[in-house]
Amino acid sequence: MKTLKNVACGQTVKVTKLTGDGPVKRRIMDMGITKGVDVFVRKVAPLGDPIEVTVRGYELSIRKADAEMICVD
After folding, report:
1. What is the pLDDT of residues 3-14, one digit of tens each?
2. Coiled-coil region(s) at which residues (predicted)?
3. What's the rounded Cα separation, in Å, for the pair 23 and 56?
C-alpha cells in the first residue's frame, strides 16, 4: 500500500483511503483531503518533513506522520 509519504516531487496522485482515527483523521479531512481527491506533491523538505502539496487549488504543508495515514493510488 502506497502512502503520500512515498510519493516523489512533481507527481499527482489520487487518495484511495484515510487511515488513522479520531482527531488526526478529522484534521486531515478538514484540510480537504478526502477519498477520491487529487493531490499534487510540490515540494518535500530535505528530511522529509513537511511535505508541501496542492489540494483542490490550496497549497498545504502536511507533516510526515500525517502523510503516512493517506493511502494513494
Report:
1. 999 999 999 999
2. none
3. 22
